[in-house]
Specification:
The protein has 195 residues and is of the alpha/beta class. The chain contains 5 helices and 7 strands. It has one domain (6-193): P-loop containing nucleotide triphosphate hydrolases (Rossmann fold, 3-Layer(aba) Sandwich), CATH 3.40.50. It has helices at 36-44, 86-101, 121-133, 149-163, 184-193; strands at 6-12, 24-30, 62-67, 71-75, 106-114, 137-142, 169-175. A 7-stranded mixed β-sheet has the order 1-3-4-2-5-6-7, sandwiched between helices. A hairpin with a 3-residue loop joins strand 3 (62-67) and strand 4. The longest helix is centred in the middle third of the chain and has 16 residues, at 86-101. Bound molecules: guanosine-5'-diphosphate. Guanosine-5'-diphosphate binds at residues 30, 32-38, 52-53, 78, 142-143, 145-146, 177-179.
Length: 195
């Protein structure tokens, strides 16, 4: 699906470190532990391409990956991790704001939502930041295997209801599970079609 190699390119800690904006770019955001690393690994069919947000040192970096020859895939640090010192959080938020508002080739942000928890207040903060930055975003529900079929519609409705207040939100949700592969092919197709 993605022609050419999928590789870690670099971790960026300041705007000056961004690679040239010469490819279609997409990014992944989500609360710590939402399943972001697992999803990136499932998408790219690589066991440990993305490391968990608990990996020391990589937490505050914006991690760039090449996705074939035409896309950059960007892994934003997990947010909502209560233990981070305030100064660190502030520095990270400034970098995130600069990145989101100043990246001309960024086509879409995928915001991951844990299917067991739905949309939380910290997710809404990211939604609002994306609105302000005029970055189209799409919610990807993770850990679908943990949500009973009977509870799925109510969960999806909660997410849709929250999204309806956000002008930058792309209305269509993607339901995924890195454990059983649900929705992974759909998400790949969505990414491949970003132009
Ligand atoms: P990150 O912090 O967002 O990168 O999250 P991880 O990918 O490290 O996953 C956090 C935890 O959720 C780990 O214990 C994973 O095994 C688990 N997890 C991730 N994806 C899934 C999934 O699709 N289904 C289930 N049941 N657990 C998952």
């Amino acid at each position: 699906l993605f022609e050419g190699p999928v590789d870690f390119l670099k971790g960026v800690v300041a705007m000056s470190g961004l690679p040239p904006a010469d490819r279609v770019e997409l990014c992944f955001a989500g609360r710590s532990n939402v399943g972001k690393s697992s999803l990136i690994n499932a998408l790219t069919d690589r066991k440990s391409l993305a490391r968990t947000s608990n990996t020391p040192g990589r937490t505050q970096e914006i991690n760039f990956f090449t996705l074939g020859t035409s896309h950059y895939m960007v892994d934003l640090p997990g947010y909502g991790y209560a233990k981070a010192p305030l100064g660190v959080v502030k520095k990270w938020q400034d970098l995130l704001k600069s990145y989101l508002s100043g990246r001309p080739n960024l086509r879409r942000a995928f915001v991951l939502i844990d299917g067991r928890h739905g949309v939380k207040a910290v997710d809404e903060e990211i939604f609002s930041l994306l609105d302000k930055s005029a970055v189209t975003f799409q919610c990807v529900i993770t850990k679908a295997d943990k949500v009973k079929t009977t509870a799925q519609e109510a969960m999806l409705d909660q997410v849709r209801e929250r999204l309806s207040r956000h002008p930058a939100a792309f209305p269509e949700l993607v339901l995924t599970s890195s454990n059983d592969g649900t929705g992974i092919a759909d998400l790949r197709a969505i990414i491949a079609n970003l132009a």
